[in-house]
Model the fold of this input.
Amino acid sequence: MGAFSLYPLFEADVDEEAATAILDPYVEAYSDVTYETEPLADPPEDAFVPKETLSIETLDTFVELFEDLLRYPKIEGARLWGPSSERFPVIIQHSALQQLSDPDLYEFHALDDRRTMVVAESELEFRRIHEEIPPTSRE
Done:
């Protein structure tokens, strides 16, 4: 198992074969990405989570893959299982960071000169981000 396990959340009509077709190129292209079969602890009922997920060794690769995967129209989001717990990443614009009422709750990873990945440690904190940051400032 890598340092991080990325669980893409596909639309409910996606099947295992279609999910694998999207994920295979990442396993082939990155030396620090492999498949693993550890199930997501509490998958959302309205999404499809493939049996094989991506095991990723480094945070940099995780951020790169997370950004890229969210560009697929059939992927609604993702969950991250890391060294200590399940975590919930969201990409937001830098200008929206000041709207977070309690920034000490989150990890921040700058992606470029205008976007930051905010990682929530719980689903409650993840929902709080969605309440405090308008959709126009999230990706």
